[in-house]
Design brief:
The structure is a homodimer of 269-residue chains. The first copy, chain A, is α+β, with helices and mostly antiparallel strands and 269 residues long. In chain A, 42% of the residues lie in helices and 19% in strands. The structure holds a DNA duplex (30 and 30 nucleotides).
Chain lengths: 269, 269
DNA sequence: CGCACTTTTGAACAGAATCAAGTTTTGTGG
DNA sequence: CCACAAAACTTGATTCTGTTCAAAAGTGCG
């Protein structure tokens, strides 16, 4: 790797060396001497699903030790950061889930997105001083904290090895994801919103090695509603309707998907 | 300026030297020798409203010459880039306006945002290979093209002077702006959407030195509708209603705002 | 066990979409 | 430069989706 690559797709970013387990242990071995963590990421159970880790090549992985200072545990309902908090770190979810939201004038809240293991939180405050949104754990959640000071040092030290590029990639993905959410919200059809929401969740669980057809929602109906621009009652009603039609089974927070194709049909129109 | 600052608000980013005209000419004089443009930005009429320029300190301003390779003219309806185009540059609008949108399955389009002079387009593709959206000029528009290759070189050469920081700042602002748009779309009230839209436009014109109470819309009603999640007819109806109530006067694309407070009242609820 | 919160369900209402013309504007070619 | 066609905008009537209001049932936790 020669120079910072501003423009590169994820395929080419995944060097073979990153996928080679021996390369990883080599890099972690060389990381000795960094105070906070001697074996960066190597002990992390969520390593393979971590967006940051997946983007790293062996070269820059070596530097991760300087950045990943600590792991943080959150219980259900605890905040990772709040609106107007000073931005201090990026956070990668190791296990559990979180919602990012902000408070509207009326006191109600707008859920921007839900995040799962491997997802990165806090990008929206990387370039500005304060967080403009709040992040709250929806269940027992552990996150990997990457302090901005450490990130800054790492970026300067190894600016040639493309750390910035990883950040740009994360930013772009976040922007695109936001655009898709806009599309989702603007769809007039409530059935389509719910169908798309379920399909997206299903895909995300599958990507993380869990069942695509049986999973637990970590968010309340009202949070789903806030995210999709629907009233709680509508969310509830449509979930019930989908169940009555045999597409899914919902019991409290547990969801089973029986007819993925039918869901996709609802999503399509 | 010592090191890359990942976290800094816009106030501190605006060094006094940036605001000092003599410092600007000094830096542009030093830029001699760069092939493409001997006086970077100094001849640009939109310099003061350019988000990129405003973020630059005198130090990094000197490097702009290497990056700003050319100015590009677009006529009404011309594309700056399209979905799935290879990402090649960032674009700063010098004059005119543009919409960023993407096409939905049904063939309809989702307008992500409108952009005015000084705004930066193309960030969503900086970290990935392809544009996920299209950008189209809504009128005669001139843009400043910053090729990614040049940007890349500049970032490597002067990584210590904070160019990356400017990009992060732009990214964060873009993300936050997207979140606000989500809020706008989720508001159920069509009147509020239009009122907020008008107030935002008014503010943007004012920021750029134009009248806040009399301006021309560069977008069609249908584009406003697509952006706000409303049918064309609803946009038209509400504009008419606002006019009947004496809040505004709309004639084709020309808008006059008579009662800003009343608009704000509609926006609030 | 009781209280608070979440979820479900029902009924009525309201807001915005849709459908359907009609009007105005814009653009194009003769 | 005018005539004609296409696009953009407006206006009205109707329909319908999803909200709101209301209340009950289920769940969880101290």
């Amino acid at each position: 790797m020669t120079a910072s690559r501003l423009n590169m797709n994820s395929e080419s970013a995944r060097d073979d060396t990153t996928r080679d387990p021996s390369a990883i242990s080599r890099s972690t071995a060389e990381a000795e001497g960094f105070p906070n963590l001697t074996k960066p990421c190597s002990g992390c159970l969520s390593r393979e699903r971590c967006r940051v880790f997946r983007l790293m090549t062996a070269d820059s992985c070596r530097q991760a030790a300087a950045m990943v200072s600590r792991s943080q545990q959150l219980t259900h309902g605890e905040h990772l950061f709040r609106e107007n908090d000073r931005a201090e770190a990026l956070y990668v979810i190791k296990s559990g889930s979180a919602k990012v939201y902000f408070t509207l004038e009326g006191g109600s809240e707008q859920v921007v997105a839900f995040y799962m293991p491997g997802d990165v939180l806090g990008l929206d405050a990387l370039g500005v001083e304060l967080h403009s949104s709040s992040a709250l754990a929806l269940e027992s959640t552990s996150v990997c904290v990457i302090p901005l000071t450490g990130l800054q040092e790492a970026c300067v030290k190894i600016s040639a090895s493309g750390w910035h590029h990883y950040l740009y990639q994360m930013f772009s993905r976040e922007l695109i994801s936001g655009h898709r959410t806009m599309e989702l919200i603007t769809r007039k059809d409530a059935e389509a919103k719910i169908a798309i929401f379920l399909i997206k969740l299903s895909r995300q669980f599958k990507e993380r090695g869990y069942s695509a057809s049986s999973f637990n929602l970590s968010m309340k109906r009202s949070e789903i509603g806030s995210h999709l621009g629907l009233a709680v009652e509508t969310v509830s009603r449509i979930l019930t309707r989908f169940q009555e039609d045999g597409l899914i089974r919902v019991e409290r927070r547990h969801v089973q998907i029986f007819d993925h194709n039918a869901l996709q049909a609802w999503a399509g129109d």
